[in-house]
User: Fold this.
Amino acid sequence: METLKVGVIGLRIGRQHLKNFEECPEAEVVALCDIDEARLEELLKERPGIKGFTDYNKMLKMRELQAVSVALPNYLHCPVTLAALKAGKHVLCEKPMAMNAAEAEQMKSTAEGLGLTLMMRFNMRFGATGATLKPLIEAGVLGEVYHVTTTYTRRDGYPKPGGWFGQKSKSGGGPLIDLGVHRIDLALWLIGYPKPVSAMGNVYDLLARRKLAGVDFDCEDFAAAMIRFETGCTMYVTASWDGHQPVRRELSMRIYGTEGSVFERDGQLTLCRKEHGVPTVSTLDQQKPTETEQDHFVRCVLEGLQPGPTAEHGVIVMKILDAIYESAQTGREARIR
Amino acid sequence: METLKVGVIGLRIGRQHLKNFEECPEAEVVALCDIDEARLEELLKERPGIKGFTDYNKMLKMRELQAVSVALPNYLHCPVTLAALKAGKHVLCEKPMAMNAAEAEQMKSTAEGLGLTLMMRFNMRFGATGATLKPLIEAGVLGEVYHVTTTYTRRDGYPKPGGWFGQKSKSGGGPLIDLGVHRIDLALWLIGYPKPVSAMGNVYDLLARRKLAGVDFDCEDFAAAMIRFETGCTMYVTASWDGHQPVRRELSMRIYGTEGSVFERDGQLTLCRKEHGVPTVSTLDQQKPTETEQDHFVRCVLEGLQPGPTAEHGVIVMKILDAIYESAQTGREARIR
Amino acid sequence: METLKVGVIGLRIGRQHLKNFEECPEAEVVALCDIDEARLEELLKERPGIKGFTDYNKMLKMRELQAVSVALPNYLHCPVTLAALKAGKHVLCEKPMAMNAAEAEQMKSTAEGLGLTLMMRFNMRFGATGATLKPLIEAGVLGEVYHVTTTYTRRDGYPKPGGWFGQKSKSGGGPLIDLGVHRIDLALWLIGYPKPVSAMGNVYDLLARRKLAGVDFDCEDFAAAMIRFETGCTMYVTASWDGHQPVRRELSMRIYGTEGSVFERDGQLTLCRKEHGVPTVSTLDQQKPTETEQDHFVRCVLEGLQPGPTAEHGVIVMKILDAIYESAQTGREARIR
Amino acid sequence: METLKVGVIGLRIGRQHLKNFEECPEAEVVALCDIDEARLEELLKERPGIKGFTDYNKMLKMRELQAVSVALPNYLHCPVTLAALKAGKHVLCEKPMAMNAAEAEQMKSTAEGLGLTLMMRFNMRFGATGATLKPLIEAGVLGEVYHVTTTYTRRDGYPKPGGWFGQKSKSGGGPLIDLGVHRIDLALWLIGYPKPVSAMGNVYDLLARRKLAGVDFDCEDFAAAMIRFETGCTMYVTASWDGHQPVRRELSMRIYGTEGSVFERDGQLTLCRKEHGVPTVSTLDQQKPTETEQDHFVRCVLEGLQPGPTAEHGVIVMKILDAIYESAQTGREARIR
Amino acid sequence: METLKVGVIGLRIGRQHLKNFEECPEAEVVALCDIDEARLEELLKERPGIKGFTDYNKMLKMRELQAVSVALPNYLHCPVTLAALKAGKHVLCEKPMAMNAAEAEQMKSTAEGLGLTLMMRFNMRFGATGATLKPLIEAGVLGEVYHVTTTYTRRDGYPKPGGWFGQKSKSGGGPLIDLGVHRIDLALWLIGYPKPVSAMGNVYDLLARRKLAGVDFDCEDFAAAMIRFETGCTMYVTASWDGHQPVRRELSMRIYGTEGSVFERDGQLTLCRKEHGVPTVSTLDQQKPTETEQDHFVRCVLEGLQPGPTAEHGVIVMKILDAIYESAQTGREARIR
Amino acid sequence: METLKVGVIGLRIGRQHLKNFEECPEAEVVALCDIDEARLEELLKERPGIKGFTDYNKMLKMRELQAVSVALPNYLHCPVTLAALKAGKHVLCEKPMAMNAAEAEQMKSTAEGLGLTLMMRFNMRFGATGATLKPLIEAGVLGEVYHVTTTYTRRDGYPKPGGWFGQKSKSGGGPLIDLGVHRIDLALWLIGYPKPVSAMGNVYDLLARRKLAGVDFDCEDFAAAMIRFETGCTMYVTASWDGHQPVRRELSMRIYGTEGSVFERDGQLTLCRKEHGVPTVSTLDQQKPTETEQDHFVRCVLEGLQPGPTAEHGVIVMKILDAIYESAQTGREARIR
Assistant:
């Protein structure tokens, strides 16, 4: 069996990339990179054959290295991905794709120009909710979809105060770009990625301002927006790191279609239809996913396939995020091109 | 005790107006009006002292008549209210205030010019949800409110097919103007009626088009919109007469504030806060309202008070509805002045 | 509108027949009959135009009478139905059809010979469970049905001790013929009335023997049987008037098919399927029936249609009951021809 | 303390036998046997003192070996048990006892003739349900038992496709002989093993035929039957490897008696009685079993006692299974001698 | 059938006495008495044959009157009962028996001296809880009872502010004498009325003091006490008209015995036992009472039987109440003789 | 960072002391003591630097040892604590403080005299219930507290039969001193440790007497008491090792205050209030404790602070226990000085 030789750049969330690659029979991890030497050493010492780097540019010079995972803070997604592509490596890039759509488009066109695979790590597609809903929706159980809501809100769920997550210059924004990005991609993927035309919304930092006084934090704590698609379909999205709510974390989604609607609530899936004149409310049995996002990336590179979460999708999501942040600032709808 | 002599114009939903007036010790019903003679006679025969009319213009000539309820199809709210005001009668007008904001403003200015009371019948304010939440919110339990959602959706809940409800020229629209109007007023009233500046949304008739083929129906069956207020606060609203959902009727509302959030679900009220460092989730005991909307109208007229649901409020809600319908048509945000 | 002139014979359960006929716009009740004069008079005095009889033979001589309901103790179903048919009247006969299949077949052939309608009052078909499941099953949601269970069991639910219900010579048996008859017909109707070929089971009176010592009672209190159909399909049925169980009354049914199974429990309906690879468990919204059994009878007679619950169905159910009682007595399987 | 020297033949399910023997202070495992050398070696390498065999005949020649567990595919239960007995070893045999009652009787008479212990591994008796119900039923809380139902059904729960489980020549049948056997023994043991006189039922492979096309599979996927006992008591049994149902696995049982009934549902136990005139519904606290089936076997051999699950019980269960399969084939009741 | 000629004195709660007497075939109401003429007239005008009085002394002079219900404010129970007894009438007296034990004993000895029936209206004994528990406890399911708790607490459940209930000189006290009296009698009756020897407790008016400022109110709003019986058994009792609690009304009771315990919660009854080594938790089916307290009184008088709720029981309960109030005042245990 | 050098005396429950000390960065365990050498060795062999003792007197001679945990059977708490104090060591003493209040006071005055820290190990204060309720109650959400109930009851939950727990000469009593002690301290701490003035109650051994016949056991199995405080506040407490109840273990508490009440049930916390006229029922989010009791002890010793669970509190609890046991014996209220 042919295997893909991969490396991981950034070993915080990248630790999960590493683990998944190690469980994938078609991948072989040959290099790891992190600027924190201690973190790097800890992982290397149990993995004798793997090379370690604190400078990703050096790592990218490894001949046998065929592909890399970019698992760095958001502001590094673009430069490191570009460097990797230019070094001839396929790239699996953490979400969000970049700091903004302009960066994302540059990444996309670079990959296309070089004929390399650039896949977004939208890992929610590879969870049980996606595995259960996708075949049903593709089979047409919802008919034509006209409205969607999607939510990912936390109570008192800020990332570590003082870290890069809360600094807009490094993260690009708060819960919208951190959590909302997942939910927007999942919903769009399920309904076939219609083209967005505009967004209107707002972001707030009223709770953060009080709680995090004195901390280096200039992101929103809550975001809400409405997105309109070319098809006329609309989507309401909310994301937060904080807010008064009954549970610590709420993940929910509603998709309204002409033949049926789906209601998701923390992984519980309900399908509402009218069958032969009888309204039915169906609980869906959660299906186990068949591959991880790493499995998928490796398989697509090896077989020369387009991966599910394309750079195109990454760009579309970034455009939506840009538009929402723009609308929040101008107080007006933002158009998406 | 002084009493107010009232009449009711339109005896379908007006039957409820009548009943409430009859239970109000300070009101005396002296006249009823409906173009359907049978319906009128049925009510008059048990009420010997009351005069009946099939022409509201004749009724408005009654000297002793001091106030009227206008409980007619939407397109008649404006002309009949104007006629009543011009005849010197105080008016309690059914929701929605009119077919559009222009009509509504004319009604408002006429009443003001004549020094007469014009109250909107936003009766949801007079239910248990309002009676329970209003004192708490007024006492500040939510702090500063920044986001609101409000929903009134039905499954297979069209008004009688073929009737005026489904004809846009008589109703002004579908579930948004019929049901959404209630929820928008209730939410705005609870949070202090901030000034709306724009709306973006869409309306759909995908289910109705199939089910009601052959019926005189040109309204939406589902509407969704985002409204932005001068304060920066945003509101997400949905309303429908049809749609696939687990229950026949869903009424829900969320109000997010800096000190607390309220979640309403079909009358169940939950208040989420952080008290002395401990997140608390409180079920609120439903409070009995102290007066009906008719009691309130009568009391305000007799005591020369401004009623709670003012013409001003009616106008604001109509502007929001106008903006949502406009946005649905243009595919762009609509500004509200 | 043409109406059907009907009479009711037997005014205990017949009171419900009467009520239903009175609410049916196409029926006109012209005669009532009961041997208990007081009971008869009580009903007649509020119904001035209706004739009363204590002898059904006299009633059957009424020219204008076109149809009768037979609502008498079981042992009278056959003789009175025969008399009515011979007098040229259409007949709606209470369940069970008769004391045994031989009587039932005589009733059926008499009606056929005279070209008159003979409908069985299997009223469970006209309830919400039937109204909900029938369209779904007819549309094929279950695929091929291979096994069915049906239950109607009571705890301490004997009919009035000492009455005809407990005397086998008048009732034909206990809960099996009283309650089981309903459930067997309902299940068979839903799955398309396959032809039964054999039954094996037993009946018991262990609880009744203790509790009803000294009372005129010689029926079973519990029955359980397995029925085999020509298609290979099997059915498990239980019925009781008494037994230790968690609830006072249990009504349940399971229908196993290749494409789906239905589970009924006290009116709650669940449909289990595998759709596009995903197991779904659907709660069905209870549908309101569109006509009562009396409406159906009247409509079928007036329009010359075969009613749903035919004499043929009545005969099949009686054959099954005969076979179960025979098996209980012989300790061996009983064949059904 | 005297110990029993035991061996295990077959190390798939036999791995559980091994584990239980190892936790039993009175047993000493001295030999293991499996035709798969790798599987055997894996277990032996952590157990230095134990001898390994790939040929059970060789193992049976070990002098010090006193008893063996036979944990092989069903078609080997009889020949291997006979060989073991003839070699003078006591035998603990996996369920089902054999391929049919004839084999089972030969095993039983051989053991009796040689004065050796032959115990069936009906391990459900040694679970919490048995430990809780047995003392209550023995104390008479149910009075006289007259009807029993028992169920073990799975949704999409086939054993590994292509293996011996699905080949009738090796397994003797499908879920009835695999799962039903457990439930039938458990129910019979609880009610005192009445003598069966006949069975009627059917087996189906409608779902398997579709799903497992191309796989070596000729067993049923669902079985349903009614069994009659000499006492007049009846038992309804179902077992399946597949079928549309709300849960992946349903285990249930009902036992109806004159003084009380027991309802089991996935281990939850409810006892319904009438006490001093008051119906009571009691939840039973699950009792921890006091010994495993291996403990029991070892203790009985060492103390010269008859084990609970006797060869006699194994034979009775096989007769019932034979009769159900016969009835399924002939379409008629099968008598049991 | 012989009937008992009865009268009712006091027509507030007495209205329920009247209703019960009217439904009792063995009673004939011949006289009614109330100082409020309007209230009296309203009841008399629909009851032509019954005599009305505003002065109970006059009523007591009626020859044919055999028995009276005393349904007056607490401070009148003693004088009116004494007057009635002296007039030769049997008496059914509302709870509490009197203002204190001294009065109660006088009533008891007077009735005994005159050979007349004096029954306490402890109507909780005649409800479903009593009807269900009494036969079970009498049959010994609890064994020896050693501890009891009983509670009747309300949230914001004051009797009409300003009425006699809140004036200690007319009521004798607050919720303890109003509500606690019911629960104490019920519990004592169920466990066989052991002899109390002491009580310790306290009463509070902390909430009432704030809420009812300005109202004529000098009773407690909450009471809690421990009572000790000669048998060593102890009882914890609480009663309130106000207090912060999750529900508007809590009624609960626990009875701990050597063979079983009973837990009551708002009418839900649970019996906990250990049967044949297995802990069982049984839900009890609520039994319908067979007679009302009025039926019981009438039957006992007519048949010359001692009624269940004797004057003796009334005296014991009054002694307990006296002791609790005394302990509250002294801050020390009060002995009961 | 300065650390405290500690030792643990008694390694049964002391094992938990050890574990907590080891996780406390400011503590260093230098010595362990147990009379059971095997138990001691097992712990020492994984802890090379720690010294082991079988005689606590020898251990107390260690110079560097600064503080000890006393985790011995109850009758040893006093003598060992005294010895440790006299050896100049700070002491963390397991609950209950001693066999009686006299011992406890001696311990307290010795510690005070020597200026050493003596802290009670009331570890329930350091659990989630305490961490959640304490800040709310301190902030005044309950207002003035007037009544408390607290319960810790087990079903069939005796400590190991035959051990010291059941011998009154070694344990001082049964569940009251073993479990009740925890609950009494927790409740008193939450409400501010009011001064107790009297107690009345009883203890029982009715179940134990039957079950534990032949075992060395002379304690109660159930205790119930009422305690009165100087403030007028009362407390009802129960504790048991056995009793018929629905669950194996019940832990509950109610605290009634003028502004709110708290209901605890097995860790679930509910706060009932009336806020702005609306009754609210709030579920409290369980807060994670910030330190263990060992952390607290170490921190207080190092920083020279008075620990939360003082010797004073230990003495008060012992006085209450003494009074309850006295009341049980005399049948009369016991005064507490």
DSSP finds eleven helices and 15 strands in chain E. Residues 224 and 238 of chain E are 4 Å apart (CA to CA).
